[in-house]
Amino acid sequence: MDNFISLKKRSKSFFWASFFFSKNETDQINILYSFCRLIDDISDSNRFDKKTSKKILNKIKIEIINKKSNEITVKNFIKLIKFLNIDEKIPCELIDGVKSDLKKVNFTNIRELENYSYFVAGTVGLMMCSIMKVKKKSLYKHAIELGIAMQITNIARDLREDLDRARIYLPETFRSFKFKNVEELRNNKTKINLFCNDNVKLILYSDVVYSSARQGIYQLPMKHRIPIMLASNLYQEIGKKIIRNPINVWNTRVYVSFQKKILITIKTILICILPLHKKKNNI
Q: Would you say 78 and 64 are in contact if contact means Cβ atoms under 8 Å apart?
C-alpha cells in the first residue's frame, strides 16, 4: 500500500496509466518505482551531504549485487529482480547515474545528456520490459528511448529546480548564450527568458525520441500498448504545455490537468486500437 501511495503522490502521470495494468503488474511497478524514488531521494535529500549520499548509494549497490538488504524498499526490490531474473547490472547502472548528480552537472552536448538519461531512466525502461514479460529483444531499444524521452521531459519541466541544485542538464549546444555561473543566470531576467526559450529546443528533441519509441510501443500486446502509450502521451503533453509558454517552468510546476488527462486517455485508446495507428503516430 505504501508503494501505491508513493506512486500516486510522486508520479501522477504514470499512476494514471497504471490503472490499465493487471494488479500483479501494478504491484511490481510500485515496487520498482519506490526503489527508484528511494535512490533519487538519497541524492536530492537535504538530510545528507554529498559524501554521505554517495556512501549510502554505494551500500545499496553492494546490497543489490549480494542480493541481501535489511532496508524494506531495497529488500522488496531485490526480491522483484530475483523473481523477474533482471540482471543486477541494470539497477546498478541506475544508481551510478544518480550518483553522477552528486557532482556539478553542466552538460556540453546531447550525447552527454542521452548517456545520463539512459542510466537514470533508460534502465527503468528495461526493467519495465521484464515486468511486462517482453521477450522481443528488438523492443528493448525502444524501451530505452522512451525512458530517455521521459527523462528529458522531466529535465525540461524541472529547469529551475535543477538550477538551484547547480545542475545544468540543458546542453551547451542548445544554449543561445554563455554564462560563467548559476548566479549570473538566476539574477538576469533577460537571460532567464533566453534560457527558457532554449529549453524548448530540448523538448523538440525529445519529441523525436518519443516518436521513435512509439514504433516499439505499437508492437506491444494491447494490454501493455495502451498504458505505455498513455504514459508516453501524458509526459509528452507536459512538453507541449511548456512550448506554449516557456517561461512557466521558471515560475511554476507544469502539469497536465484532469480534464486533459481524460481527453488524452480517450485519444490514446482509440489510436492504439484503430488499424490506422501505424500512420497516425501522434495525438
A: yes
> 168 — phi, psi (to 5°)?
-115, 100
Identify the H or E element spanning 106: strand 105-106
pLDDT (tens digit per residue) in 4-37:
334 444 456 667 777 889 999 999 999 999 999 9
Q: Which of 30, 54, 10 is nearest to 127 (CA)?
A: 30
**Which grid cell sits at 130?**
521484464
Integer CA distances (angstroms), 259 to 39, 168, 240, 246, in order: 32, 33, 16, 22
What is the distance between the alpha carbons of residues 163 and 102, in angstroms, rounded to a whole number?
13
User: pTM for the complete prediction?
Assistant: 0.91
Amino acid at 156: A
Domains of the chain, by residue range, sit at 1-103, 105-283
Cα–Cα distance for residue pair 26/111, rounded to 1 Å? 33
CATH fold of the domain at 105-283: Farnesyl Diphosphate Synthase (1.10.600)
pLDDT surpasses 70 at 91: yes
Segment holding 105, helix H or strand E: strand 105-106
pLDDT tens digit sequence for 185-235: 888 899 999 999 999 999 999 999 999 999 999 999 999 999 999 999 999
- Contacts of residue 22, Cβ cutoff 8 Å, sequence gap at least 6: 223
